Structure formats: C-alpha cells, structure tokens
C-alpha cells in the first residue's frame, strides 16, 4: 500500500468530474478513486487515504448491468465509516471505459475506466501477432481511449528484425505511437517513462506473459507486483496477474495492471471497428447497397478493392472476423434473461446480509 499523501489532482481528478459531481448533487460527499476491485468490495483512495468500500443497497437496486457497478478507475462519491471502511453512494459519469469479454459465453468485463491512454503491449518473441494488436485497437477505440503500442522484450530480436516489425505495424496502423521496451537492457524503459505524465491514467493491455506487470515494476522502480503475487507464483516460475489494480508512480503517473488473456473479444457497438478500419469505411461509400456487409454483395466496393489489391487482404479478412464476433456478442434474449436471474440472486443475498 502506498502511504504517501496524494491529492485528488494527483489521482486524476479534474474539472470534468467536479462539474458532474455538482450536477448530480453530490457536492457534500467526498470523492475517491477505485484502485482495486474484489468480489462485491472495492479498494478506494481519497485525499484522506485508502478504504475498503461497498456500494449502498440503494445502488444495488438501481443497478441492472455491469456498467452500473464501480470498476477500477472510477470516481465515486463516498461516506467514510470507521476503521478504514467506506460506503460508495454513486459513480461519477465516466470519461472513458475499456470493456472486453473473455469468451462468447461470458458477459462483458470492464477492464478499467477513466483511462487517458491504453498501452497495448506485444512481446517480440514468437508470440508476436499483428491481428491481436488490431483487436486491442478495436476495444480501445470503442472506449474512446487513445492507444499506444508498446513492443516489449526487444532484447529477444535483432535490431533489423525490430525495425522490420515497426515498419510493418506503421504500414498497417497509421498515426499510432510505438514505443519499444525491454526490462533487461539499460535505459530500456526510458522512452516509456518519458511518455507518462503526472495525474494521467494508463492502462496496460496485452496477452498473458507479454510483460505488462514487469514493465509496471520497472516504472515503479520496485518489484511491487511480484511480491503481491508471490504466493501464486511459487513453484510456477511465473507471476500471472489475477486482478486489476492501480499503481502510483513516484512521478505522478497512475498505472493500471490487468490480467492478460489468450483471447480478446469485442463487445458492444461496432463504432470501434469502423474507426480501426477507416479505410474500409471510406471504401464502403461506393458499395451499391447502403447496408452492404462486404461479404458477397453485388457491387461491393470493398471486395472490389481487395480484388484490385487496393486493400490489404489480411486487413479485410480480419475486419470480417472481428465484425462477426462483434455481432455475435449483441446479447440474445436468452442470455439477457440469464443475466437478470443472476442479478436477482445477488440482490437477495445482499438484502439478507442487511437484515
Ligand atoms: N526477455 C525478456 N523477458 C521479459 C521482458 N519483460 C518481461 N519478461 C518476462 O516475461 C515473463 C512474463 O512477464 P509478466 O510481466 O508477468 O507478464 P504479464 O503481461 O504481466 O502477464 P500476465 O500477468 O499473465 O497477464 C516474465 O518471466 C518476465 O521476466 C523483456 O523485456 N525481455
Ligand atoms: Mg501480469
Ligand atoms: Zn460492400
């Protein structure tokens, strides 16, 4: 736990949240930031320190979906109780949100909220994969968050291989910053460190094992995460992160670590897709039908562009694949009912607890 005092500004608070707080009539309650999430409880940090918090019964009643519950990164209004406990009375409207689902069967997860920049971490070992970068770009764009690509473990490849990959990425994704890092060479997180600003929140995304926690440890200047995970890592030789949590850099940057998964899903609307594939979006204006989905329609300008090599075939295929996943995820009625049932149980349990 970080014992040094942090002001609200240090924690990322600003005008936007303050005006939302006023609008909602929450001015008399102190604000705090959610820095970790447990089952039905939250670790929050206010100007007065850290608290273990729960949401009020009233809030639970109003809640109908995952988004109605606090998530790491949220600004909440609270009432402080004794012994380091607090009650969360409401969530201030979010500036941004990163969501994903782990599999087609599971419901959406909120990775983090109120993020200024998402670092999409890829490792330069065999695991390296452009389509995966693209998937992460979709979820960040959907959440209105600026992405930055980090190529980690540069110690594992030659400089010319690295340059080749950087060019490949630049060609496929225009206008995105790329930072290279390695935790095993001198000054190797220098560029990353320079990028991070006080009072801004950064979320680390990427598959398991790419080095998200290692990079955060480097930025913190101490092995804060490894020690927290020691019991899990014992005997495994690996410290896979199991929960989301915010860490505080001495220079003021706020870093959110996040467990990596093998698969990244796309949730919700497909505006993110449109953003990532600007090119396809532009081409589609010339499709014969306005509701063309660019798979087999006559007069499809996108398919035509692929045929004429004006559009990268891989990009096209990935677009179709991601779009399918996105569509699949628009919940069926059955799935929605299932969710409501689960929620009903949850409320019942809480009510019993309150008795
Ligand atoms: N060679 C090399 N190995 C690295 C580098 N960064 C991290 N690693 C190693 O990669 C392994 C995984 O690193 P983690 O930081 O646990 O990866 P993670 O992304 O946090 O993984 P999850 O928590 O499972 O999502 C560890 O054994 C690290 O020592 C690097 O720059 N170079
Ligand atoms: Mg980790
Ligand atoms: Zn088309």
Automatic annotation (TrEMBL):
Cofactor: Zn(2+)
A UniProt-annotated Pfam family: RsgA_GTPase
InterPro entries on file: G_CP_dom, P-loop_NTPase, Ribosome_biogen_GTPase_RsgA, RsgA_GTPase_dom
Domain EngC GTPase stretches: 113-262
GO CC, alphabetical: cytoplasm
Keyword rRNA-binding (UniProt): yes
EC number: 3.6.1.-
Ligand binding (Zn(2+)): 287, 292, 294, 300
Record GO biological process: ribosomal small subunit biogenesis
Positions with a binding annotation for GTP: 152-155, 206-214
Domain called CP-type G: residue spans: 104-264
Molecular functions (GO terms): GTP binding; GTPase activity; metal ion binding; rRNA binding
Top-level enzyme category: hydrolase
Alphabetized HAMAP family for the sequence: GTPase_RsgA
Subunit structure of this chain's protein: Monomer. Associates with 30S ribosomal subunit, binds 16S rRNA.
The family this protein is said to belong to: Belongs to the TRAFAC class YlqF/YawG GTPase family. RsgA subfamily.
Protein name according to UniProt: Small ribosomal subunit biogenesis GTPase RsgA
Origin species: Candidatus Gottesmanbacteria bacterium RBG_16_52_11
